[in-house]
Amino acid sequence: MNNKLTDLPERPICPNLRALYLQNSDDLMEIPTTFFECMPALQVLDLSYTSIKSLPQSISKLVSLREFLLKGCELLMKLPPEIGALRNLEVFDLEGTELICLPKEIGELINLTCLKVSFYGYANLCKNSQTDEIIPKTAFSKLTRLKELSIDVNPDDQWWDEEANAILDGLFWLINLKTLNLYLPTVELLKRFLQLKIYPALSHLKLTVGHHDQRIISRLPEKLEMKFKNFDKCLKYKNGKGKTIEITEALKHSSAFFLDRHWTVTNLSEFQIHEMKQLKFCLLLECNEMQTIINEANEKDNDEYGSKGDKPVLTSLEHLHILYMKNFKSILEGRIVSSSLSHLKTLAIHTCPKLTTIFTLDLIRNFVNLEELIVEDCPKIKRLISLEPPFLGSNLVLRSLKKVSLLDLPELISMFSGLEIAPVLEVMMIYNCPKLNDLSTSEVSSKNLKVIKGEREWWGELKWHNLRGSCCQPDHLVSIFVPLRWDRDLMAQLTEDPAAVTPHGVLETIISENENKKIKCEIGGCKIKVQVMLITSCDYGDKTLLGEKISLQLISAVACDPGNEYRGKIGQPAFFVTKNIYRGIDETRTTLSETFDWDEEIGVPGAFIMKNYNDTELYLETLTIEDVPGCGRIHFVCNSWVCPAILRKPDRVFFTNQTYLPSETPAALRQYREEELRKLRGDGAGMRRRRDLVYDYACYNDLGDPDKDSKYVHPVLGGSIEFPYPRRIRTSPLSTKTDPESESRPWFDIYVPRDEHFIHNGLQWRFLDGAEECIKVLLHRLDSTPQDNITNDFNTFEDVLNKELDLWRFEYGTRCLSSGNPYQKSKAIREKKLSWRTDEEFTRDILAGLDPVTMRRFEEFPPTSNLDPKVYGNQRSSISKRHIENNLDGLTLEKAIENRRLFILDLHDAFMPYLRRMNTTSTRTYATRTILFLQNDGTLKPLAIELSLPHPRGDQFGAISQVCTPAELGVQHSIWQLAKSYATVNYIGYLLISRWLNNNAVIEPFVIATNRQLSVLHPIYKLLHPHFRDIIQINAFARKLLLNADGVLEKTFSVAEFGMEMSAAAYKDWVFPEQALPVNLIKRGMAFEDSNSPHGLRLLIEDNPCVVDGLKIWLAIKAWVEDYCSFYYRSDDTVRKDSELQSWWKELREVGHGDKKDESWWPQMQTRKELMDTCTIIIWMASGLHATISFASYHYATYFAKRPTISRRFMPEPGTPEYAELESNPEKALLETINTPTQIILANFLIKVLFRQFSGEVYLGQSDTPEWTTDTELLQAFERFRKNMADIEQGIKEMNNDKKLKNKV
């Protein structure tokens, strides 16, 4: 029975209760601890499809229980040990759960005859966590009465790969087993399985072999897969390669075969089809090398079992389905033996672009039992029958053919070539065959013909002929023609009983199976037009069927429903039933349009509920309602995934494109607004699934992998004084086995809220997907090469400049991506090959390169350190006047400081605490200080570089340092070039902190808090949300492969495994108000306040491209934010009384940046100015700052000779072989010091992920929809912002062409 229970009584007294059915109670989440204590006679318990997360201990009291059903309990992840008390249990069904393990007590259920379990979810995490065994090894030895066993696992679960052997050992004890459902990842395991004694005795077997790959949307119709599973002995073979004896052996006893994505097979004959004597059902999907089914030559050439060329094949096959085979050309190649395929009843062919015909003469003679033919989406088919003269028409008879369906065949011109080939034909269905405009009366001469279905337009224009020539349409056909209906599922019309079809059907009442409510589509009354823009997978099938499975319910913004706690009245569900489908250039984007009757009781719609009854999720971009009485046009910007209704997720409510402060929200929408925020916040518990849309916080405790090896232990970042850090999105509650504070790392994708997945730009998703595969290959290459044997492929700089490696061209399986060159050269380098070696380019890169916000004005000489002298001793710089004073263009040191002409890039304190540990790895790194001088022409020149190492006797003895100065000739010149490389390596390592921390990590809490506390109706949500696009997804990818233990950062950057610790140390100095660009410039001494200057600031370096451009962008953002906030917040009191805003800011400070919650510099969010300043800083950090310092320097970062990320040896000492090489071959010495080619490519992956600029991005001054608001005043303000940004862009282009400006990159 279907229940709607939410709560259960604490301790019901039911001593005689025999059966308890609680299934389908979606809202039932908890069973009271004592609930089962007084049910001693209970024999049947059904808790299927509930939301329970655990079973109470009182379950042990059900000692009489014989049948226990927990199907579809997706939140149930563990069974209690008390389950072992159910010793009389015979049937235990856990299909559709997401268990992470079975308790060892499962072995106590000795009377079990049926056990079905599912680990389709997170068993990997358990494997890496507290439990050694997911399925106890000894359990099967006790369950000897089992007759039916089903183990359903996630095909991506690595634990199953490891333990499948043990499971096969356990099957040895199950001597009574008759029914088995099992997944074997490899053919080797299949070989073991076939040797088991139980194998011949199995009467029902569902066997899946081969590694699976995840698909966003499956192409296989669900009903077709169910047909496959209905056979007694089913074999599914996926992602196979080559010929395998084991598969051939298993096929001897199989009644159904599903071949999914075989990569090499060219015909089914390769699997010894003459041995498939029991095969009744065959399904072939996406075997893109397969060209035919039966190959005569292959049959004759294979002599392993003797001559077979004259033996019939597939004599028992009844159903053959061929889907999505891009190279499939024919069913038969060569001659076919009589009786082959003679029992075939169903032939269905879908989406085979190279197929040109269906039947040959031999095939027709053998298809004596063919009853149904379906051909769909085969664009090259012109005729179903290939007639090669001479032929005898009288012998061409498909004597059993009853149904023919021809769908989406644009080139089809003939059905049966004018022949009377189907004498018992009952049903014809023709759809979208525009060139089939002529039929012969012989083709439809069957006296059994009951129904012809097709488009009304096609039928009306159809021409007829007979043996004598043209003729009129036979009269009896008029009465059996049924026009295809767009309010019905196309395939449902294909399969329905012809006797149930009423010719000339009229539009009937549509009944929603889930709502059981009638939607009228009658003529007359007020109408509204609704248009929906969706994004579907490229693999989605017939898009004309989309709308039939999408329901829409409007929610009133003005009429409250007393029967629904005075929420806005909800209208009846309506479906998109007409054929109004529009496709854009992008085949994944679809527009549905429909006209509905208007419900006057709704009044003004303020929101709507959409339900998706398709099998797959859809991305809803926008919905527009036109001709609303009294309102006209109402637009909804949605940009969200809608899950299939079958998943029983809460209804998705989408709000109109109107903006309301919480206190101004219409009463009818207020509760919906609050409920949507509660859904987004979640309950803080449980595992996160890919389809979830929940935002919650966690520390960075998922970077390490302590279960793999102790060397991969990483400290938890966040939540401590030693390692403070911003919070990230919460993913998994499961900890590692060796460290309860560390989160287990899944093998599959790290969870991000569903709407944070890339959707606007498929290229970006494919980029990261391909990058991940390549990264894994390259990391393996580095791991498999001992450090002592790593060599460099380059001997000279000319080698580097001429190298033509493709960054992405790495074969991985069948994928080969290509985009860009790893040895990217900037325009300056292309014009002058060795310009990157000049001091001018070195200093220009510091000023306007990857991280132009680190350099500061030099105010004290010599440079000092802020490190604790009690721990680190004397860290004062060794740079003296003699090192620099001769190079100050005639100024004294004191005068140069006074005139603000000296600058420093000081990374000494950032590196020194970690250097001793860093240099125990493969890197050889210094702590560096670089002194720079501002010349009269506005450019910088380097004066000195200090390279420091910890004292060999201990940290407390301070540092030992070497000071290098510019030189033009000899070995000193080579030493200077090496010093610049060491400084650059240092600088690039520190880039992680400034880029990752300030542009990624600190932003994520803002994204989380905004989604949790600000409704989509809130003005600040609308202001900030466009700038948060892809941040969580990018950060998750970085944690998975770039920043994790043994990841790209540790393998290819000087900071090694200490980079994230360094970023935590840098976060200690992070101050939110100082992220404002003017404040940052003043703090670093790069500018000072001057009311006479254009921006109120006077820059010390006027030719400073990033700063000049950045200030213009900053002021444009500031002006836009002030216009925007002033529109909604007329006074400070409005800010203080905004409940959502206050909750947002409180959570952001106390949770998102909780380690800094007590800092006094946080704005209090009590005034309009505080709100405006805060929003300006957030937008600047999330977009303006990122663009200013990333896009311009993207190509610089990827040219490794200019920007090495790691140094592999220290500065050579006189008298050593390395020093001799530096004297004799300085180019080789430098190339032996910096990155290897593999390290180069890996480092570039990290840089590309952090810097990459995609064509689908929405930039400042742009909007992804022109109707982002309905407020005219704001649209005008945004237009000013847009023009301002356009002017800035034009000004930047002009300055880039100004040859007087020398510091542009």
From TrEMBL:
Coiled-coil region list: none
Listed GO MF terms: metal ion binding; oxidoreductase activity, acting on single donors with incorporation of molecular oxygen, incorporation of two atoms of oxygen
Chain segments annotated as transmembrane: 1177-1201
Single GO BP term: oxylipin biosynthetic process
Keywords: Dioxygenase, Fatty acid biosynthesis, Fatty acid metabolism, Leucine-rich repeat, Lipid biosynthesis, Lipid metabolism, Membrane, Metal-binding, Oxidoreductase, Oxylipin biosynthesis, Repeat, Transmembrane, Transmembrane helix
Highest taxon listed in the record's lineage: Eukaryota
Domain Lipoxygenase: 659-1305
SUPFAM superfamilies per UniProt: L domain-like, Lipase/lipooxygenase domain (PLAT/LH2 domain), Lipoxigenase
EC number of this enzyme: 1.13.11.-
Pathway(s) it belongs to: Lipid metabolism; oxylipin biosynthesis
Keyword Transcription attributed: no
Record has Flavoprotein as a keyword: no
Enzyme class of the recorded protein, top EC level: oxidoreductase
PANTHER family from the UniProt entry: LIPOXYGENASE
Protein name: Lipoxygenase
Organism (species): Nyssa sinensis
